[in-house]
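[Discussion] Sanity-checking designs against the backbone

I'm trying to build intuition for which residues belong where. Below is a structure token string of 183 positions. I'd appreciate it if someone posts a full sequence so I can compare it with mine line by line.
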């Protein structure tokens, strides 16, 4: 026998549930290659069961593949799969909308000539970031996630020089950015 074929058989032992002749609960045949129903766990053969592909989305396995008894188990597994896909897609849509909303938040400069109109009069403050755009993104995220608003007023972007210690003991300087404002 070719080594490749032996390897194939060994791999299949793990995934297909190879047992020494289990009896299919549906056709009563004793077979070496059987599965357990995805829903009720009964032993079934590939001839009797309905095959299900794994449901994969965005690198996640939403539902494992395998076999289910025909009838109620198949119907249930199909409905379960549809439900998982619907939930996954709704969640993706929610995330997409959140990110889109965050990207559209207006940061109104403290120097803006017009009227400043904060909704709650709450001061917000980001952490310090090495990129100015990251500090601005953080302010937008706080506006949406913490205060459910789409404009930050009285925005002041400040920077400071900070110092760090490199692995060889040298002091180095870098600039950091912070955004403060009002919602
Ligand atoms: Zn069978
Ligand atoms: Zn079943």
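Best answer:
Here's mine. Compare freely.
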């Amino acid at each position: 026998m070719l080594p490749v074929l032996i390897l194939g058989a060994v791999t299949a032992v793990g995934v297909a549930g190879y047992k020494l002749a289990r009896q299919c609960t549906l056709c009563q045949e004793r077979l070496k290659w059987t599965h357990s129903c995805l829903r009720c766990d009964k032993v079934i053969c590939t001839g009797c069961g309905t095959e299900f592909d794994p449901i994969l989305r965005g690198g996640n396995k939403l539902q494992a593949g395998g076999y289910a008894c025909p009838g109620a188990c198949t119907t249930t597994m199909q409905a379960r799969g549809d439900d998982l896909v619907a939930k996954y897609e709704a969640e993706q849509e929610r995330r997409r909308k959140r990110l889109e909303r965050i990207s559209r938040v207006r940061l109104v400069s403290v120097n803006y000539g017009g009227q400043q109109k904060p909704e709650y009069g709450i001061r917000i403050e980001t952490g310090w970031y090495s990129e100015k755009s990251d500090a601005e993104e953080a302010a937008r995220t706080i506006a949406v996630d913490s205060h459910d608003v789409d404009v930050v007023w009285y925005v002041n972007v400040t920077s400071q020089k900070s110092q760090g210690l490199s692995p060889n003991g040298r002091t180095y300087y870098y600039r950091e950015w912070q955004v403060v404002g009002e919602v």
